[in-house]
Amino acid sequence: MSRVWKPVFWGLALAVLGLSLAPQDMPVPSTGWDKSNHLVGYSVLALAGLLAYPVRELRVISGLVAYGGLIELLQSFTGYRFAEWLDLLANAIGVLLGWGVWSLRNRFAVASLRP
To answer: Which residues does 52 contact at the CB level (< 8 Å), separation at least 6?
Structure first.
């Protein structure tokens, strides 16, 4: 199953990069609040990453937090985007939310196997 999720994960990672570096006047999907965009984006990215690489949990989680930091840094070089600590925090919380969903999924999957 992880073979299916690997291209999904990498596609989402590229989409997050593109959306994060796009000019702000470009129409992009939005929840209506910048920080919730980060939460949703990184939650979905974390869940897809964990489905793609299930035995590399901590690498996926730490890598995505670092990825969020890299994107914030790259935004500071654009001239039309700004790096924000609160965005990085929202990214990290989003990763943790995705990890939480992953953990609950695994817990319920194991519980359903018990007689």
So the answer is: 2, 5, 6, 8, 9, 10, 60
pTM of the complete model beyond 0.85: yes
pLDDT in tens, 1-14: 779 999 999 999 99
Cα 23 to Cα 86: distance, rounded to the nearest angstrom: 19
CA pair distance 65, 98, nearest whole angstrom: 12
Residue 85 tokens read as: 């600590």
Give the mean pLDDT of the chain. Answer: 92
Single-letter amino acid code for the residue at 13: A
Helices H, strands E: what count in the chain? 4, 0
Note whether 21 and 75 are within 8 A (CB).
yes
